[in-house]
Amino acid sequence: MIDWPIISATIFLPLIGSLIIFLIKEDETTSNNIKWAALWTSIGTFVLSCLIWFQFDHSTSQYQLVEKYKWFNDFNFYYHVGVDGISLFMILLSTFLTPFCILASWENIKKRIKEYMIAFLFLETVMIGMFCSIDILLFYVFFEAVLIPMFLIIGIWGGERRIYASFKFFLYTLLGSVLMLIAIIFIYQKTNSMNINFLQGNYFFSKKVQIYLWLAFFASFAVKIPMWPFHTWLPDAHVEAPTAGSVILAGVLLKMGGYGFIRFSLGILPEASAFFMPLIIILSSIAIVYTSLVALAQEDIKKLIAYSSVAHMGIVTIGIFIVNQQGLEGAMIQMISHGIVSAALFLCVGVIYDRMHTRNINFYGGLVNKMPKYSIVFMLFVLASIGLPGTSGFIGEFLVILGAFQKNSFIALFAALGIILGAIYMLYLYKKIIFGTLENEKLKEILDLNLREKLILYPLVLAVIIIGIFPNIFLDPMRMSIEQIIINYEFANGK
User: What's the number of CA atoms in the CB half-sphere (13 Å) around residue 351?
Assistant: First the structure.
């Protein structure tokens, strides 16, 4: 058993790395040193998160590797961190994707490299910290801190409309978070505790109070995930963000909303969650159908994938709020899978954008003739996004539909409809870009994947296949934590 503070080490190693980079004087000779420092820091963080995974005990729903230190002497505020089955893979997802983001930025970020790498490492610190937090106030601090580096990444290194996109992203997410802060203060006043573990399973609030608190948390998490109709910031943010920004936004930041729903809405406010379940199901169903149809109409590849993310997250929210074992396990696996697959799709877009400097679907066609390796890799991620058996996408979607069918067959129908529509727009995208004759003269000199791009994409291919073939590696650690949430939920609702 590890007897040193491995959780804190994992949280703060990227921050230490960013401080080291800050001390490096940036010029032409040191820019490579900055990149390598950022890369090795992110790899080291991933290794530490793997150690947490290896030490994790599957047989308990309790938080493990817990660290607790007094934060404010006059209040019950603690630096209180640990992992359970729900947070474990969110941490791993964050640490797994960050090195690929740094590698993806290796050549296409040419200005303010030092500040860019600092922003990414700081972002990794606050993402891990948020998923590890057992204290609600600490969770809120990390949750909000995510806004700062992401705002800068989009606003400084983004596209032509980067200022508009970054402000829209910032204001949308901040507005929801203010309401969440009010809810947190109210909870503290009534319970004199910020401990998530303490608040789960102890019901301090009447159903009426829970409803108000639930709406306050919903305002924040619905924007973050994002749910229809709070999703309009996402396509703009994705289009304008640099490739690595889109990767981390789709891969991790959207999962903060799903994680929040499981941890707070279901865990602390179970009666209100049962009350609002029909609303969530309706909004999720609309999101699945509406954003899938909107995706079909897109000409920008990034926008299409962004709208597909909203549809996939609709399946996740259905899985969360039907509150049974299959649904919640499916939602968790779907979040992990979508984190990897959507990140990989944005990286694939980045590969051709770096070469041609356009994301217009109609510009491409016939890439299979010049980029066979790229075509195969892209095909696998498209099929994973659709949910082909043997890929990570199948497991999550299958479990959600199974769980939904147990609840209500109409809910399962809408979830299945999302998969069908997803197949239509993703296969359309693949056909337009990859198949056909190579007619555009500018594409005739395009090169296939280089070594750096292979180092980025091939591990993601492997991850997609491993999750698809060996899902129990991921399902077993989270099972007990999910069971405990369901037990608390059913007890609170008298089932």
Answer: 28
For 106, list phi and psi in degrees, rounded to 5: -55, -40
Of the candidates 455, 457, 289, 441, the one whose C-alpha atom is nearest the C-alpha of residue 379 is 457
229: preceding bond cis by omega (within 30 degrees) = yes
Given a contact cutoff of 8 angstroms between Cβ atoms, the answer to whether 314 and 331 are in contact is no
CB 335 within 8 Å of CB 398: no
Q: Each residue of 371-388: b (16+ CB within 10 Å) or e?
A: beebbebbebbbbbbbbb
228 backbone φψ class: left, alpha, beta (φ>0; ψ -120 to 50): beta
Q: Count CB neighbours of 245 within 10 A.
A: 30
pLDDT at position 495: 62
What is the token pair recorded at 447? 């090169």
Residue 490: C-alpha distances to residues 23, 208, 266, 363, 464 (Å): 53, 18, 10, 53, 34
Q: Which residues, including other chains, have CB under 8 Å from residue 308's CB and lie 6 or more apart? A: 291, 292, 295, 342, 385, 422, 425, 426
In angstroms, how far apart are the furthest CA atoms of the chain? 71
Burial 304-314 (b: 16+ CB within 10 A, else e): bbbbbbbbbbb
Instruction: Report in angstroms the alpha-carbon separations of 249 from 76, 118, 169, 382.
Output: 33, 17, 11, 19
**Percentage, residues of the chain above pLDDT 90:** 12
Which pairing describes strands 64-72 and 77-83: parallel, antiparallel, or unpaired? Answer: antiparallel
Closest to 399 in 3D by CA, of 460, 336, 459 = 336
Q: Is 277 a residue whose pLDDT tops 60?
A: yes
- % residues pLDDT > 70 (the chain): 98
pLDDT at 441 over 80: no
HSE of 20 in the Cβ direction (CA atoms, 13 Å)? 17
**Residue 68 φ/ψ, nearest 5 degrees:** -140, 120
CB of 55 within 8 A of CB of 1? yes
CA atoms within 13 A on the CB side of 118: 15
The pTM of the full predicted model, rounded to 2 decimals, is 0.89
Q: How far apart are CA 218 and CA 12, in angstroms?
A: 29
- 4 alpha-carbon distance from chain centroid: 28
C-alpha distances in Å from residue 238, one per residue of 161, 296, 344, 369 = 11, 17, 14, 29
Q: What are phi and psi of 183, to 5 degrees?
A: -65, -40
Please, which residues bridge with residue 78 across strands? 70
- DSSP-H helix ranges across 56-134: 85-104, 113-132
